[in-house]
Amino acid sequence: MAHSEDEILAGLAEIVNEETGLPTDAVTTDKSFTEDLDIDSLTMMTVVSVAEEKFGVTIPDEEVKNLATVGDAVRYIAQAQS
Length: 82
Known about the structure:
Order of helices and strands: HHHH
CATH architecture: Orthogonal Bundle
CATH topology: Non-ribosomal Peptide Synthetase Peptidyl Carrier Protein, Chain A
Number of domains: 1
Number of strands: 0
Number of helices: 4
Strand content: under 5%
């Protein structure tokens, strides 16, 4: 079942919260993973792998570097589901 962008955003916020302790309302589409949320590359790989399981998608390693913001990740996951 495909998730809406709002559901994907909420899911990513939960994952980031679990991995970093950041409040879920701090995870918005305009936030940069590295600059705003202070997520390092190791944590980002964990976020990606949990998101892949949660949303039933595959995010190739070479694509992860293109996911600079939460919005980028939401859009990528939404497209990968269809």
